[in-house]
Design goal:
The complex is a heterodimer. Chain A has helices at 3-16, 21-33, 39-44, 57-62, 67-80, 95-101, 110-122, 125-140, 150-153, 239-258, 271-274, 278-286, 293-304, 314-323, 331-352, 364-367, 373-395; strands at residues 159-164, 170-174, 177-178, 192-193, 222-225, 235-238. Chain A is mainly α. Chain A has two domains: 3-148 and 243-280 and 292-395, no CATH class; 151-238, no CATH class. In chain A, the strands form two sheets. A four-stranded antiparallel beta sheet of chain A has the order 2-1-5-6. Chain A has a two-stranded parallel ribbon with strand order 3-4. In chain B, α1 runs antiparallel to α3, α1 (5-49) packs antiparallel against α5 (144-191) and α4 runs antiparallel to α5 (144-191). Chain B contains five helices and two strands; from the N terminus they run ααββααα. The chains are: A mainly alpha, B mainly alpha.
Chain lengths: 396, 195
Protein backbone atom coordinates (compact mmCIF):
# COMPACT_ATOMS: atom_id res chain seq x y z
CA UNK A 1 0.00 0.00 0.00
CA UNK A 2 1.07 3.58 -0.52
CA UNK A 3 1.68 5.98 2.38
CA UNK A 4 -1.74 7.61 1.92
CA UNK A 5 -3.49 4.35 2.75
CA UNK A 6 -1.21 3.39 5.63
CA UNK A 7 -1.45 6.80 7.27
CA UNK A 8 -4.77 8.40 6.44
CA UNK A 9 -6.92 5.36 5.68
CA UNK A 10 -5.70 3.65 8.87
CA UNK A 11 -6.66 6.80 10.81
CA UNK A 12 -10.13 6.70 9.26
CA UNK A 13 -10.53 2.98 10.01
CA UNK A 14 -9.37 3.46 13.61
CA UNK A 15 -11.76 6.37 14.15
CA UNK A 16 -14.69 4.45 12.67
CA UNK A 17 -13.74 1.49 14.91
CA UNK A 18 -14.17 3.73 17.95
CA UNK A 19 -10.68 4.94 18.85
CA UNK A 20 -10.30 8.56 19.85
CA UNK A 21 -8.67 11.10 17.55
CA UNK A 22 -5.36 11.00 19.44
CA UNK A 23 -5.33 7.20 19.55
CA UNK A 24 -6.16 7.00 15.85
CA UNK A 25 -3.28 9.34 15.01
CA UNK A 26 -0.83 7.17 16.95
CA UNK A 27 -2.14 4.01 15.29
CA UNK A 28 -1.90 5.65 11.86
CA UNK A 29 1.60 6.91 12.58
CA UNK A 30 2.80 3.43 13.53
CA UNK A 31 1.16 1.92 10.47
CA UNK A 32 2.95 4.38 8.19
CA UNK A 33 6.22 4.15 10.13
CA UNK A 34 6.66 0.49 9.16
CA UNK A 35 7.74 1.77 5.71
CA UNK A 36 10.32 4.11 7.26
CA UNK A 37 11.91 2.18 10.11
CA UNK A 38 15.16 1.30 8.39
CA UNK A 39 18.54 0.45 9.90
CA UNK A 40 19.80 3.86 8.82
CA UNK A 41 17.07 5.57 10.83
CA UNK A 42 17.54 3.29 13.84
CA UNK A 43 21.30 3.82 13.81
CA UNK A 44 20.75 7.60 13.94
CA UNK A 45 18.32 7.16 16.83
CA UNK A 46 20.74 4.76 18.55
CA UNK A 47 18.02 2.15 18.60
CA UNK A 48 18.31 -1.63 18.15
CA UNK A 49 19.01 -2.35 14.48
CA UNK A 50 17.17 -5.67 14.58
CA UNK A 51 13.92 -3.75 14.88
CA UNK A 52 14.19 -2.57 11.28
CA UNK A 53 10.92 -3.11 9.47
CA UNK A 54 12.08 -2.04 6.05
CA UNK A 55 15.22 -1.62 3.97
CA UNK A 56 16.10 1.45 1.95
CA UNK A 57 17.24 1.13 -1.64
CA UNK A 58 20.81 2.00 -0.70
CA UNK A 59 20.76 -0.58 2.09
CA UNK A 60 19.53 -3.22 -0.34
CA UNK A 61 22.26 -2.31 -2.83
CA UNK A 62 24.85 -3.04 -0.14
CA UNK A 63 23.25 -6.29 1.03
CA UNK A 64 25.04 -9.48 0.26
CA UNK A 65 22.88 -12.06 -1.44
CA UNK A 66 24.53 -15.08 0.11
CA UNK A 67 22.45 -17.35 2.36
CA UNK A 68 22.85 -15.15 5.44
CA UNK A 69 22.08 -11.95 3.56
CA UNK A 70 19.02 -13.45 1.91
CA UNK A 71 17.69 -14.71 5.23
CA UNK A 72 18.04 -11.24 6.70
CA UNK A 73 16.19 -9.71 3.75
CA UNK A 74 13.48 -12.36 3.98
CA UNK A 75 12.97 -11.91 7.72
CA UNK A 76 12.22 -8.21 7.32
CA UNK A 77 10.06 -8.30 4.21
CA UNK A 78 8.14 -11.45 5.07
CA UNK A 79 7.37 -10.31 8.60
CA UNK A 80 6.08 -6.84 7.78
CA UNK A 81 5.18 -6.50 4.11
CA UNK A 82 4.58 -9.90 2.53
CA UNK A 83 2.95 -11.97 5.24
CA UNK A 84 2.65 -15.55 3.92
CA UNK A 85 -0.86 -16.85 3.48
CA UNK A 86 -0.23 -20.55 3.90
CA UNK A 87 3.05 -21.90 5.24
CA UNK A 88 1.87 -25.46 4.64
CA UNK A 89 0.45 -25.03 1.13
CA UNK A 90 0.54 -28.31 -0.80
CA UNK A 91 2.90 -27.94 -3.73
CA UNK A 92 4.92 -30.30 -5.87
CA UNK A 93 8.46 -29.38 -6.60
CA UNK A 94 12.01 -29.21 -5.30
CA UNK A 95 12.51 -28.02 -1.73
CA UNK A 96 13.78 -24.58 -2.76
CA UNK A 97 10.72 -24.03 -4.94
CA UNK A 98 8.40 -25.36 -2.25
CA UNK A 99 9.87 -23.10 0.44
CA UNK A 100 9.45 -20.01 -1.72
CA UNK A 101 5.98 -21.01 -2.88
CA UNK A 102 4.88 -21.25 0.73
CA UNK A 103 5.93 -17.64 1.30
CA UNK A 104 3.32 -16.36 -1.17
CA UNK A 105 1.59 -13.38 0.37
CA UNK A 106 -2.17 -13.25 0.56
CA UNK A 107 -4.97 -12.07 2.84
CA UNK A 108 -6.78 -14.09 5.47
CA UNK A 109 -4.05 -16.58 6.28
CA UNK A 110 -3.44 -18.05 9.77
CA UNK A 111 -0.44 -15.74 10.22
CA UNK A 112 -2.73 -12.72 9.94
CA UNK A 113 -4.73 -13.99 12.89
CA UNK A 114 -1.47 -14.53 14.79
CA UNK A 115 -0.41 -10.97 13.98
CA UNK A 116 -3.67 -9.52 15.29
CA UNK A 117 -3.55 -11.68 18.44
CA UNK A 118 0.05 -10.59 19.04
CA UNK A 119 -0.99 -6.94 18.78
CA UNK A 120 -3.90 -7.64 21.15
CA UNK A 121 -1.62 -9.26 23.71
CA UNK A 122 0.85 -6.36 23.62
CA UNK A 123 -1.95 -3.84 24.00
CA UNK A 124 0.00 -0.81 22.78
CA UNK A 125 -1.26 1.49 20.04
CA UNK A 126 2.05 1.13 18.25
CA UNK A 127 1.62 -2.66 18.01
CA UNK A 128 -1.91 -2.12 16.73
CA UNK A 129 -0.67 0.28 14.06
CA UNK A 130 2.04 -2.14 13.00
CA UNK A 131 -0.48 -4.96 12.68
CA UNK A 132 -2.69 -2.73 10.50
CA UNK A 133 0.21 -2.14 8.14
CA UNK A 134 0.78 -5.89 7.87
CA UNK A 135 -2.94 -6.51 7.30
CA UNK A 136 -3.22 -3.88 4.57
CA UNK A 137 -0.12 -5.18 2.78
CA UNK A 138 -1.51 -8.72 2.62
CA UNK A 139 -4.11 -7.31 0.18
CA UNK A 140 -1.84 -5.08 -1.88
CA UNK A 141 1.06 -7.51 -2.13
CA UNK A 142 -0.96 -10.59 -2.93
CA UNK A 143 0.84 -13.12 -5.14
CA UNK A 144 4.34 -11.89 -4.32
CA UNK A 145 6.90 -13.18 -1.85
CA UNK A 146 9.05 -11.28 0.63
CA UNK A 147 12.30 -12.63 -0.66
CA UNK A 148 14.34 -12.37 -3.82
CA UNK A 149 13.02 -14.56 -6.60
CA UNK A 150 12.99 -14.17 -10.35
CA UNK A 151 10.54 -17.06 -10.63
CA UNK A 152 7.95 -15.77 -8.18
CA UNK A 153 8.25 -12.00 -8.37
CA UNK A 154 8.43 -11.18 -12.03
CA UNK A 155 6.02 -11.04 -14.92
CA UNK A 156 6.47 -11.30 -18.67
CA UNK A 157 4.97 -9.77 -21.82
CA UNK A 158 1.52 -11.08 -20.81
CA UNK A 159 0.37 -8.08 -18.77
CA UNK A 160 -2.86 -6.16 -19.36
CA UNK A 161 -4.37 -3.33 -17.41
CA UNK A 162 -8.14 -2.99 -17.29
CA UNK A 163 -9.13 0.64 -17.55
CA UNK A 164 -12.57 2.13 -17.03
CA UNK A 165 -13.88 3.77 -20.20
CA UNK A 166 -16.11 6.20 -18.35
CA UNK A 167 -19.33 4.60 -19.61
CA UNK A 168 -19.47 1.83 -17.02
CA UNK A 169 -17.39 -0.53 -19.13
CA UNK A 170 -13.70 -1.38 -19.36
CA UNK A 171 -11.08 -1.73 -22.05
CA UNK A 172 -7.73 -3.45 -21.82
CA UNK A 173 -4.30 -2.00 -22.43
CA UNK A 174 -1.08 -3.93 -22.78
CA UNK A 175 1.51 -2.74 -20.26
CA UNK A 176 5.26 -2.79 -20.62
CA UNK A 177 7.45 -1.67 -17.77
CA UNK A 178 10.39 0.62 -18.33
CA UNK A 179 13.42 1.12 -16.16
CA UNK A 180 13.76 4.87 -15.71
CA UNK A 181 13.97 5.70 -12.02
CA UNK A 182 14.32 9.42 -12.74
CA UNK A 183 10.79 9.67 -14.14
CA UNK A 184 7.77 9.10 -11.88
CA UNK A 185 5.04 6.63 -12.80
CA UNK A 186 2.44 8.05 -15.17
CA UNK A 187 -0.99 6.71 -14.24
CA UNK A 188 -2.80 8.48 -17.08
CA UNK A 189 -0.66 6.93 -19.84
CA UNK A 190 0.00 3.64 -18.00
CA UNK A 191 3.77 4.11 -17.93
CA UNK A 192 5.42 2.42 -14.97
CA UNK A 193 9.05 2.09 -13.90
CA UNK A 194 10.29 -1.31 -12.82
CA UNK A 195 13.59 -2.55 -11.44
CA UNK A 196 15.94 -3.76 -14.19
CA UNK A 197 15.68 -7.34 -15.32
CA UNK A 198 18.25 -9.71 -13.84
CA UNK A 199 18.54 -13.37 -14.76
CA UNK A 200 19.86 -14.23 -11.30
CA UNK A 201 17.16 -15.83 -9.17
CA UNK A 202 18.38 -14.10 -6.02
CA UNK A 203 19.19 -10.65 -7.39
CA UNK A 204 17.96 -7.86 -5.14
CA UNK A 205 16.01 -6.44 -8.10
CA UNK A 206 13.72 -9.47 -7.83
CA UNK A 207 12.60 -8.68 -4.29
CA UNK A 208 8.89 -8.29 -3.61
CA UNK A 209 6.96 -6.51 -6.33
CA UNK A 210 9.90 -4.44 -7.59
CA UNK A 211 9.58 -5.92 -11.06
CA UNK A 212 6.06 -4.54 -11.27
CA UNK A 213 6.99 -1.14 -9.81
CA UNK A 214 4.42 0.27 -7.41
CA UNK A 215 1.50 -0.87 -9.55
CA UNK A 216 0.23 -3.39 -6.95
CA UNK A 217 0.02 -0.50 -4.46
CA UNK A 218 -2.05 1.81 -6.65
CA UNK A 219 -5.67 1.82 -5.59
CA UNK A 220 -7.07 2.31 -9.11
CA UNK A 221 -5.15 -0.58 -10.71
CA UNK A 222 -6.95 -3.54 -12.20
CA UNK A 223 -4.74 -5.90 -14.14
CA UNK A 224 -4.25 -9.46 -15.23
CA UNK A 225 -0.96 -11.23 -15.74
CA UNK A 226 0.58 -14.65 -15.83
CA UNK A 227 3.01 -15.33 -12.95
CA UNK A 228 5.30 -18.25 -13.63
CA UNK A 229 4.28 -20.13 -10.49
CA UNK A 230 0.68 -20.32 -11.71
CA UNK A 231 1.49 -22.70 -14.56
CA UNK A 232 0.14 -20.56 -17.41
CA UNK A 233 -2.99 -19.56 -15.48
CA UNK A 234 -3.83 -15.92 -15.24
CA UNK A 235 -4.15 -13.92 -12.07
CA UNK A 236 -6.55 -11.00 -11.94
CA UNK A 237 -6.01 -8.27 -9.39
CA UNK A 238 -8.80 -5.84 -8.69
CA UNK A 239 -7.28 -3.25 -6.37
CA UNK A 240 -10.37 -1.04 -5.91
CA UNK A 241 -12.33 -4.04 -4.64
CA UNK A 242 -9.42 -5.50 -2.63
CA UNK A 243 -8.47 -2.20 -1.01
CA UNK A 244 -12.06 -1.61 0.07
CA UNK A 245 -12.11 -5.08 1.63
CA UNK A 246 -8.79 -4.27 3.34
CA UNK A 247 -10.33 -1.10 4.77
CA UNK A 248 -13.38 -2.95 6.08
CA UNK A 249 -11.22 -5.72 7.50
CA UNK A 250 -9.12 -3.10 9.27
CA UNK A 251 -12.23 -1.68 10.93
CA UNK A 252 -13.25 -5.18 12.06
CA UNK A 253 -9.74 -5.92 13.39
CA UNK A 254 -9.50 -2.56 15.14
CA UNK A 255 -12.82 -3.12 16.89
CA UNK A 256 -11.45 -6.41 18.21
CA UNK A 257 -8.19 -4.77 19.26
CA UNK A 258 -10.11 -2.04 21.07
CA UNK A 259 -12.06 -4.71 22.94
CA UNK A 260 -15.42 -3.95 21.32
CA UNK A 261 -15.73 -7.51 20.01
CA UNK A 262 -14.70 -10.88 21.45
CA UNK A 263 -12.88 -12.47 18.62
CA UNK A 264 -11.07 -11.92 15.37
CA UNK A 265 -11.74 -14.27 12.49
CA UNK A 266 -10.13 -14.12 9.10
CA UNK A 267 -12.25 -13.45 6.00
CA UNK A 268 -14.58 -11.23 8.01
CA UNK A 269 -15.22 -7.58 7.21
CA UNK A 270 -17.15 -4.77 8.82
CA UNK A 271 -18.97 -3.56 5.72
CA UNK A 272 -21.76 -2.10 7.85
CA UNK A 273 -19.50 0.36 9.64
CA UNK A 274 -17.93 1.52 6.36
CA UNK A 275 -21.28 1.75 4.51
CA UNK A 276 -21.90 5.51 5.08
CA UNK A 277 -18.54 6.23 3.43
CA UNK A 278 -18.56 3.49 0.84
CA UNK A 279 -19.50 5.61 -2.14
CA UNK A 280 -16.89 8.23 -1.30
CA UNK A 281 -14.13 5.67 -0.78
CA UNK A 282 -14.96 3.74 -3.92
CA UNK A 283 -14.84 7.02 -5.86
CA UNK A 284 -11.30 7.65 -4.54
CA UNK A 285 -10.26 4.22 -5.70
CA UNK A 286 -11.49 4.82 -9.24
CA UNK A 287 -9.34 7.94 -9.66
CA UNK A 288 -6.26 7.27 -11.76
CA UNK A 289 -3.92 8.93 -9.27
CA UNK A 290 -0.70 7.70 -7.72
CA UNK A 291 -1.51 9.32 -4.37
CA UNK A 292 -4.85 9.78 -2.66
CA UNK A 293 -3.59 11.65 0.44
CA UNK A 294 -5.83 14.69 -0.17
CA UNK A 295 -8.95 12.59 -0.53
CA UNK A 296 -8.28 10.47 2.57
CA UNK A 297 -7.37 13.57 4.57
CA UNK A 298 -10.67 15.17 3.59
CA UNK A 299 -12.51 12.03 4.74
CA UNK A 300 -10.60 11.99 8.05
CA UNK A 301 -11.56 15.63 8.64
CA UNK A 302 -15.18 14.80 7.86
CA UNK A 303 -15.07 11.89 10.35
CA UNK A 304 -13.45 13.54 13.35
CA UNK A 305 -13.55 17.23 12.50
CA UNK A 306 -9.92 17.43 13.58
CA UNK A 307 -6.81 17.91 11.53
CA UNK A 308 -3.56 16.19 12.26
CA UNK A 309 0.04 16.72 11.22
CA UNK A 310 1.42 15.14 8.08
CA UNK A 311 3.53 12.07 8.66
CA UNK A 312 7.01 12.77 10.09
CA UNK A 313 9.63 10.50 11.60
CA UNK A 314 12.19 12.88 13.11
CA UNK A 315 10.18 13.85 16.23
CA UNK A 316 10.03 10.16 17.20
CA UNK A 317 13.79 9.81 16.92
CA UNK A 318 14.37 12.98 18.96
CA UNK A 319 11.96 11.84 21.68
CA UNK A 320 13.68 8.43 21.82
CA UNK A 321 17.18 9.87 22.12
CA UNK A 322 16.15 12.48 24.71
CA UNK A 323 14.31 9.92 26.86
CA UNK A 324 17.54 8.27 28.02
CA UNK A 325 16.81 5.34 30.36
CA UNK A 326 13.07 5.66 29.83
CA UNK A 327 13.28 5.23 26.06
CA UNK A 328 11.21 2.02 26.07
CA UNK A 329 8.19 4.11 27.07
CA UNK A 330 8.43 6.44 24.10
CA UNK A 331 6.52 6.01 20.85
CA UNK A 332 9.57 4.66 19.08
CA UNK A 333 10.42 2.44 22.04
CA UNK A 334 7.01 0.79 21.99
CA UNK A 335 7.15 0.48 18.21
CA UNK A 336 10.53 -1.25 18.44
CA UNK A 337 9.15 -3.77 20.93
CA UNK A 338 6.19 -4.48 18.64
CA UNK A 339 8.49 -4.86 15.63
CA UNK A 340 10.81 -7.27 17.44
CA UNK A 341 7.85 -9.33 18.64
CA UNK A 342 6.27 -9.47 15.15
CA UNK A 343 9.57 -10.42 13.52
CA UNK A 344 10.19 -13.14 16.14
CA UNK A 345 6.71 -14.56 15.72
CA UNK A 346 6.75 -14.74 11.94
CA UNK A 347 10.33 -16.04 11.74
CA UNK A 348 9.52 -18.71 14.29
CA UNK A 349 6.38 -19.81 12.43
CA UNK A 350 8.25 -19.99 9.15
CA UNK A 351 11.07 -21.97 10.76
CA UNK A 352 8.67 -24.38 12.47
CA UNK A 353 7.03 -25.12 9.12
CA UNK A 354 10.37 -26.55 7.98
CA UNK A 355 11.23 -23.53 5.86
CA UNK A 356 14.71 -22.07 6.28
CA UNK A 357 14.25 -19.00 4.06
CA UNK A 358 14.05 -16.84 7.19
CA UNK A 359 16.87 -18.72 8.84
CA UNK A 360 16.91 -20.50 12.16
CA UNK A 361 14.62 -19.39 14.95
CA UNK A 362 15.23 -20.28 18.54
CA UNK A 363 12.76 -20.06 21.38
CA UNK A 364 15.22 -18.56 23.83
CA UNK A 365 13.17 -19.29 26.91
CA UNK A 366 12.77 -22.97 26.10
CA UNK A 367 16.46 -23.37 25.36
CA UNK A 368 17.56 -21.27 28.31
CA UNK A 369 19.71 -19.06 26.10
CA UNK A 370 20.46 -15.37 26.67
CA UNK A 371 20.01 -14.46 23.05
CA UNK A 372 21.59 -11.65 21.04
CA UNK A 373 21.55 -8.14 22.46
CA UNK A 374 18.34 -6.92 20.76
CA UNK A 375 16.30 -10.02 21.47
CA UNK A 376 17.59 -10.11 25.03
CA UNK A 377 15.78 -6.80 25.40
CA UNK A 378 12.64 -8.42 23.98
CA UNK A 379 13.01 -11.27 26.46
CA UNK A 380 13.49 -8.82 29.34
CA UNK A 381 10.41 -6.83 28.41
CA UNK A 382 8.44 -10.03 27.80
CA UNK A 383 9.53 -11.46 31.16
CA UNK A 384 8.59 -8.21 32.89
CA UNK A 385 5.11 -8.48 31.39
CA UNK A 386 4.79 -12.10 32.50
CA UNK A 387 5.97 -11.33 36.04
CA UNK A 388 3.49 -8.42 36.25
CA UNK A 389 0.68 -10.65 35.02
CA UNK A 390 1.52 -13.36 37.59
CA UNK A 391 1.57 -10.76 40.34
CA UNK A 392 -1.85 -9.49 39.24
CA UNK A 393 -3.13 -13.06 39.16
CA UNK A 394 -1.88 -13.75 42.73
CA UNK A 395 -3.33 -10.49 44.01
CA UNK A 396 -6.70 -11.35 42.54
CA UNK B 1 -22.81 -27.16 -10.72
CA UNK B 2 -24.22 -23.67 -11.30
CA UNK B 3 -25.30 -23.10 -14.90
CA UNK B 4 -22.46 -21.98 -17.12
CA UNK B 5 -19.83 -22.54 -14.39
CA UNK B 6 -18.64 -25.81 -15.88
CA UNK B 7 -18.34 -24.21 -19.30
CA UNK B 8 -16.38 -21.32 -17.80
CA UNK B 9 -14.00 -23.72 -16.11
CA UNK B 10 -13.55 -25.68 -19.33
CA UNK B 11 -12.75 -22.48 -21.17
CA UNK B 12 -10.19 -21.53 -18.53
CA UNK B 13 -8.48 -24.90 -18.83
CA UNK B 14 -8.40 -24.67 -22.63
CA UNK B 15 -7.08 -21.09 -22.47
CA UNK B 16 -4.28 -22.26 -20.21
CA UNK B 17 -3.34 -25.05 -22.60
CA UNK B 18 -3.48 -22.62 -25.52
CA UNK B 19 -1.07 -20.29 -23.76
CA UNK B 20 1.29 -23.19 -23.08
CA UNK B 21 1.20 -24.34 -26.70
CA UNK B 22 1.71 -20.85 -28.07
CA UNK B 23 4.66 -20.20 -25.79
CA UNK B 24 6.25 -23.52 -26.66
CA UNK B 25 5.61 -22.98 -30.37
CA UNK B 26 7.24 -19.57 -30.23
CA UNK B 27 10.34 -20.93 -28.50
CA UNK B 28 10.58 -23.87 -30.93
CA UNK B 29 10.26 -21.49 -33.86
CA UNK B 30 13.18 -19.40 -32.62
CA UNK B 31 15.21 -22.55 -31.92
CA UNK B 32 14.62 -23.94 -35.41
CA UNK B 33 15.98 -20.75 -36.97
CA UNK B 34 18.95 -20.69 -34.59
CA UNK B 35 19.79 -24.33 -35.29
CA UNK B 36 19.45 -23.68 -39.02
CA UNK B 37 22.03 -20.92 -38.72
CA UNK B 38 24.20 -23.34 -36.81
CA UNK B 39 23.98 -25.89 -39.65
CA UNK B 40 25.11 -23.27 -42.14
CA UNK B 41 27.93 -22.14 -39.88
CA UNK B 42 29.03 -25.73 -39.39
CA UNK B 43 29.10 -26.39 -43.12
CA UNK B 44 31.03 -23.19 -43.86
CA UNK B 45 33.58 -23.88 -41.14
CA UNK B 46 33.94 -27.47 -42.35
CA UNK B 47 34.61 -26.40 -45.90
CA UNK B 48 37.10 -23.69 -44.87
CA UNK B 49 39.00 -25.74 -42.31
CA UNK B 50 38.67 -29.14 -43.88
CA UNK B 51 39.83 -28.60 -47.50
CA UNK B 52 41.88 -31.80 -47.50
CA UNK B 53 38.67 -33.83 -47.92
CA UNK B 54 37.85 -32.18 -51.26
CA UNK B 55 41.46 -32.38 -52.41
CA UNK B 56 41.60 -36.10 -51.58
CA UNK B 57 38.40 -36.66 -53.55
CA UNK B 58 39.72 -34.75 -56.52
CA UNK B 59 42.96 -36.72 -56.49
CA UNK B 60 40.99 -39.94 -56.71
CA UNK B 61 38.95 -38.76 -59.72
CA UNK B 62 40.44 -39.36 -63.16
CA UNK B 63 39.12 -38.72 -66.70
CA UNK B 64 40.02 -41.32 -69.33
CA UNK B 65 42.54 -42.68 -66.77
CA UNK B 66 44.35 -39.37 -66.83
CA UNK B 67 44.64 -37.10 -63.78
CA UNK B 68 42.45 -33.98 -63.87
CA UNK B 69 43.71 -30.75 -65.32
CA UNK B 70 43.79 -27.73 -62.99
CA UNK B 71 40.91 -26.11 -64.85
CA UNK B 72 38.86 -29.29 -64.55
CA UNK B 73 39.51 -29.67 -60.81
CA UNK B 74 38.72 -25.99 -60.33
CA UNK B 75 35.44 -26.47 -62.16
CA UNK B 76 34.55 -29.48 -60.02
CA UNK B 77 35.52 -27.61 -56.84
CA UNK B 78 33.40 -24.65 -57.89
CA UNK B 79 30.46 -26.91 -58.74
CA UNK B 80 30.69 -28.72 -55.43
CA UNK B 81 30.81 -25.44 -53.48
CA UNK B 82 27.97 -23.95 -55.52
CA UNK B 83 25.76 -27.01 -55.05
CA UNK B 84 26.54 -27.12 -51.33
CA UNK B 85 25.76 -23.42 -51.01
CA UNK B 86 22.47 -23.81 -52.85
CA UNK B 87 21.48 -26.78 -50.68
CA UNK B 88 22.46 -24.88 -47.53
CA UNK B 89 20.51 -21.81 -48.59
CA UNK B 90 17.53 -23.97 -49.42
CA UNK B 91 17.73 -25.78 -46.07
CA UNK B 92 18.16 -22.52 -44.18
CA UNK B 93 15.29 -21.01 -46.10
CA UNK B 94 13.05 -23.92 -45.19
CA UNK B 95 14.00 -23.68 -41.51
CA UNK B 96 13.51 -19.91 -41.45
CA UNK B 97 10.11 -20.31 -43.12
CA UNK B 98 9.08 -23.02 -40.62
CA UNK B 99 10.41 -20.99 -37.67
CA UNK B 100 8.82 -17.70 -38.68
CA UNK B 101 5.50 -19.35 -39.47
CA UNK B 102 5.51 -21.07 -36.09
CA UNK B 103 6.29 -17.78 -34.33
CA UNK B 104 3.57 -16.02 -36.30
CA UNK B 105 1.03 -18.74 -35.46
CA UNK B 106 2.00 -18.54 -31.79
CA UNK B 107 1.05 -14.84 -31.87
CA UNK B 108 -2.43 -15.67 -33.11
CA UNK B 109 -2.13 -15.33 -36.89
CA UNK B 110 -3.81 -18.24 -38.65
CA UNK B 111 -1.40 -20.01 -41.00
CA UNK B 112 -1.78 -22.88 -43.43
CA UNK B 113 -0.55 -26.27 -42.21
CA UNK B 114 2.09 -26.46 -44.99
CA UNK B 115 4.80 -25.63 -42.50
CA UNK B 116 3.80 -28.58 -40.33
CA UNK B 117 4.26 -30.91 -43.30
CA UNK B 118 7.66 -29.35 -44.02
CA UNK B 119 8.60 -29.72 -40.34
CA UNK B 120 7.82 -33.43 -40.47
CA UNK B 121 9.82 -33.84 -43.68
CA UNK B 122 12.88 -32.03 -42.28
CA UNK B 123 12.51 -34.01 -39.08
CA UNK B 124 12.48 -37.26 -41.04
CA UNK B 125 15.58 -36.27 -42.99
CA UNK B 126 17.43 -35.39 -39.77
CA UNK B 127 16.42 -38.73 -38.30
CA UNK B 128 17.76 -40.53 -41.35
CA UNK B 129 21.03 -38.61 -41.16
CA UNK B 130 21.37 -39.31 -37.45
CA UNK B 131 22.29 -42.96 -37.97
CA UNK B 132 25.41 -42.28 -40.07
CA UNK B 133 26.35 -39.52 -37.60
CA UNK B 134 26.14 -41.97 -34.70
CA UNK B 135 28.19 -44.58 -36.54
CA UNK B 136 30.75 -41.98 -37.57
CA UNK B 137 31.03 -40.78 -33.96
CA UNK B 138 31.43 -44.30 -32.57
CA UNK B 139 34.07 -45.31 -35.10
CA UNK B 140 35.81 -41.95 -35.40
CA UNK B 141 39.56 -41.88 -35.22
CA UNK B 142 39.91 -38.24 -34.29
CA UNK B 143 37.99 -35.10 -33.29
CA UNK B 144 35.73 -37.19 -31.03
CA UNK B 145 34.54 -34.25 -28.91
CA UNK B 146 33.68 -32.23 -32.01
CA UNK B 147 31.67 -35.11 -33.41
CA UNK B 148 29.84 -35.65 -30.12
CA UNK B 149 28.99 -31.95 -29.96
CA UNK B 150 27.74 -32.05 -33.52
CA UNK B 151 25.68 -35.17 -32.83
CA UNK B 152 24.11 -33.60 -29.76
CA UNK B 153 23.08 -30.57 -31.77
CA UNK B 154 21.57 -32.78 -34.46
CA UNK B 155 19.59 -34.62 -31.79
CA UNK B 156 18.47 -31.26 -30.37
CA UNK B 157 17.41 -30.15 -33.81
CA UNK B 158 15.36 -33.31 -34.20
CA UNK B 159 13.74 -32.86 -30.79
CA UNK B 160 12.92 -29.20 -31.42
CA UNK B 161 11.29 -29.93 -34.78
CA UNK B 162 9.29 -32.79 -33.25
CA UNK B 163 8.13 -30.51 -30.43
CA UNK B 164 7.21 -27.81 -32.95
CA UNK B 165 5.07 -30.20 -34.98
CA UNK B 166 3.33 -31.54 -31.86
CA UNK B 167 2.63 -28.03 -30.53
CA UNK B 168 1.30 -26.84 -33.87
CA UNK B 169 -1.12 -29.77 -34.01
CA UNK B 170 -2.11 -29.34 -30.34
CA UNK B 171 -2.75 -25.65 -30.95
CA UNK B 172 -5.19 -26.42 -33.72
CA UNK B 173 -6.96 -29.04 -31.60
CA UNK B 174 -7.28 -26.67 -28.63
CA UNK B 175 -8.48 -23.81 -30.80
CA UNK B 176 -11.27 -26.06 -32.12
CA UNK B 177 -12.15 -27.11 -28.56
CA UNK B 178 -12.16 -23.48 -27.49
CA UNK B 179 -14.66 -22.59 -30.22
CA UNK B 180 -16.90 -25.47 -29.18
CA UNK B 181 -16.64 -24.58 -25.47
CA UNK B 182 -17.33 -20.90 -26.17
CA UNK B 183 -20.43 -21.77 -28.18
CA UNK B 184 -21.74 -24.14 -25.51
CA UNK B 185 -21.11 -21.48 -22.84
CA UNK B 186 -23.19 -19.00 -24.83
CA UNK B 187 -25.89 -21.67 -25.28
CA UNK B 188 -25.89 -22.36 -21.53
CA UNK B 189 -26.29 -18.66 -20.87
CA UNK B 190 -29.11 -18.25 -23.36
CA UNK B 191 -31.07 -21.36 -22.42
CA UNK B 192 -30.37 -21.05 -18.68
CA UNK B 193 -29.59 -24.75 -18.51
CA UNK B 194 -26.37 -26.72 -18.37
CA UNK B 195 -25.49 -27.96 -21.83
Amino acid sequence: MEKDFHYYATYCAAYIAGFTHEESVRIAWSAAFVDNCSKTFLARAKAPLSAATTQLQMELMEMRTDVIGLQEITRIWTSFHFLPRDLYAPVKGAKRYRNKYRLLCGPNGPLLKDTIELAKSSGTLEAIGLSMHVLADTWAHMYFIGTTSLVFNTSNYHFYEKIADGNGGFYEKHITFRHNPGIPDDAVNSLYTATPFSLRENAVFNLGHGRLTHLPDYAYARYRYMPSWKNYEEVYKDNPEDFYKAFCQMIYALKYLRGATDRFETDTYDFEAAKPYEHEIRTFFEKRQIELAKEWKALSLKLSGKEFAPFEIEPAAVEYIDAGEDRDNTVLGRFIKAALAQKSMVTNKVFKSGNLTCGYSVNYEEKGLKGIKDYFKLLELHNEDRINQRRKGREQ
Amino acid sequence: MVKGKKQEQDIKVIERELRKCRRSLSICGISVIALGLWSVAKAILNSILNQTVLDTMLNKISFNKLPLLKSESDTITFTVYLTSALVLIFELGLRVYVGLTAISESHGTKRRPVYIVLTVIIDGLILISLLPSVISTIFSRGFLLTKIASLLLDITSFAVLTELAIDAIKLRIYLKRFEVAAVSAVDADVSGQEV
